[in-house]
Amino acid sequence: SMCSLGSVLFGCLLLSWPLSSQAQCQSDPYSSCKFNASEKLYPEKFLIYGAYEGQLFTVGNVVMLVAKFPDSVCNLPDPADISPNCKPYLSVSVRTSEGTCHNVPSAPVSKLERNFGFSFADDPDLETNTGEYKHWAFPLYVVAGMSTSRLVLTGLTIPAGCNTPRTNFENTNLIQGIHLTPAIKIDSQIAAIVSIHTGKSAGRYTVGTIINIVVEFDKDVELSGLPGQYSETYINSNGPKKIPYGVPYLEMNSNALVPLRGYDSVRSKRKIAFLYEVGPGEETPPAEQLDVLPGTAIQLNGGAILAEGTGLDVNMSTMPIPGGEGALSHPTANKIYIYKTGEKFPPLKYDADVNPDTLVAYINNRRGERSTIRKTVKPTTVTVDLQLRSIFDVDERAQQFQADIVLTTRWTDQRLRNPEAPAVADYDASILETGQIWNPDISFVNRRSGAADRSEGSVHVYNTGRVVVVQRHITAFSAPMDLRDFPYDTQRLSWVLRSGRYTKDEVRFRAVSRDAQDNTSALLRGIADPIFAFDDYAQAAAAPDDGPFRDYSVLTVSLSATRVSGMATVTLVVPLCLICAAGCLALLQDPASDARLALPAAGAAATIVLSYVVAAVCPAVGYITRVHLLVLHTYAFSAAQLLASAYLRAVCLGRRRLEERNAENRRRLKDVELVSRLHAAAVAGGGPPRAAGTAEFGEAVKAQAGVPVWAGVGEPAAGEVVPWPAPGGDAQSHAVDIGERPAAPGPAPKLGFWCYERMADTPRTVKECAPGPA
């Protein structure tokens, strides 16, 4: 029994070994599945992946059809991986240009996920426990002309080329009409125009008549956003008869453009209405009724008319042919005629956005949509003339001025040429603002930003195509000013003009002739301006190669403005000169008097006051103007006078004191001579007096000379007059003690005194004063 058990186990091991080995190597993807060659594979369910109930598919959309096999099927191969002959397809009931049946071939599941960026495993109906795909995918690409209200599956074809030794598919169609879920719609039909008509009764109409023209489609349509009928955009465009961008319009055979108003009724989106207000110069051709211009359709003009739901453009080529079925001029329609009143301005096919020298071509495509091709042949030459009326509010500090000018612009627009029209037609300048006719859009480069511009003007259009625009501007302009010669300066005021919209390849400025410039200069000299005298008018046109305006043509208009300096001379220059003159008058005063200092000081104070006035009048520049230089000279002159007067006053006062002292010294000298004579008399009488004699002598000297005299007792004090020789002593020991003594003792003089004088410019010295007349 043990041997039998071992044989059985060994046999089971041998039977199970190849299978486990193949499972580990995974060399056969079908080895893990139970295979029954007699069982035929076929989808058990059909659905639409990623759609919702009632969803609408149109051109460019993809309807992802899925054929799901039973869950018992494992390792379902993709048709593309089986063989090139394996090309299954679904047959669906859908209307196309070729019939009502359409075949949808399969596509690799992994490739669809990769291209469209999704995963079939996100759908619960397709999710499996093993994570393997158990379905085939059939992408239905919606193209133009395809439509259906409900997608119905009519068949599945699996070619025999899909069968392999391990896969055996049912090659017979087992489908008998299946409504795919969820229920979707396919609509790729382009809306077409059914008819164009009006409710206006038959008759002849002229300027001011309003005609409502209705265009009807075979299905509901959607319109792009339109400006309201009473909006500012619509009203402003309706005034000059210009269609605003984004509003579709009809081009009529009466030489008129009719803008879209909106839906004809709120109850239906199949009819849209165009509002036609008959204007001057419009008329239908002889013996022809009102209708759209042959070969044209609805011009979208940047707007859009789309089929509702699908968003597909309307087929404009279905516009009824004039006189044909559904046309406005059909024989059964109301016969409407427009007769001419006045001249039409501007012409119908006038493009105010391009310069007169640009060729414009209109091309209609097969759908009736018009495209415009523009080619600029040459730049339009524009002549500009600027006339100055006055200049006011000149602000040197802000480097700006306000001017009242008249700007005359001339150019030729052959599109406005009409020999049958009057020689000249006058219009308000508003036709330039509303864009009725082309204009070079001239702007001032040096106009102060934010400055109010009060302008008015007129436009004169000649039947030869010549256009003359006269505009008056009152605004502020910037002007760099060189004030070094203020208030006797001459400034160059300029106006720099360029086109605000057109480059130098589209607009080229041309200066007026030299004679015209000279005539303007003569007119400028006749302007009575209180601030400047004008002359030397000049123009210079250029196309810069670099700088911020290198892409534009630039015209510079300039003139010379010489300041009228009379007022500045009276208020600034003359007072400064008078200050200097007043300082000169101080030279006539006594140097020692107070007036000698008062006049220069008053002049300096007045100069300080005037300097504040000059600072308020002149701009804060970094250089010195002529009036600043005059103020500086006045400062220097007043300061020099003040210093010189102070020095002369000090010298004069010092000299006066010196003279007074010298006079005093001379008086004292005379007194000393008197003392000498008294002393001589005393010596002649028997020698110098003693106490009593000395007292008498001293009193006599004091009475006569008014100075202290040494009485011969003790040492003499400084300033005392010492008789010579001193009583009771030698000459040397009794000298005046003032810091300097006589030289070595020698023979005494016969008679003399040591005395001194104090001078203003020398120290004290001891001198020998000889008695006698000397």
Short description:
The protein is α+β, with helices and mostly antiparallel strands. It contains ten helices and 32 strands.
Largest sheet: 6 strands, mixed
Identify the overall geometry: elongated
Number of strands: 32
What would you call the structural class? Answer: alpha+beta
**N→C terminal distance:** 187 Å
Name the poorly predicted regions.
1-32, 688-695, 701-707, 724-774
Percent strand equals 25-35%
User: What is the number of helical segments per DSSP (H or I, 4+ residues)?
Assistant: 10
Mean pLDDT: 77
Fraction of residues in H or I helices = 10-25%
State Rg: 61 Å
In quaternary terms, these chains amount to single chain
Could you list some keywords that capture this structure?
alpha+beta, 774 residues, six-stranded mixed β-sheet, disordered N terminus
Structural notes for this entry:
The protein has 774 residues and is an alpha+beta fold. The protein is built from ten helices and 32 strands. The strands form nine sheets. Strands 2, 4, 5, 7, 8 and 9 form a six-stranded mixed sheet that branches. A hairpin with a 2-residue loop joins strand 15 and strand 16. Helix 7 runs antiparallel to helix 8 (595-617), helix 7 (566-585) packs parallel to helix 9 and helix 8 (595-617) packs antiparallel against helix 9. The longest helix is centred in the C-terminal third of the chain and has 59 residues, at 626-684. It is elongated, with a radius of gyration of 61 Å. The relative contact order is 0.05. Residues 1-32, 688-695, 701-707 and 724-774 have low confidence and may be disordered.
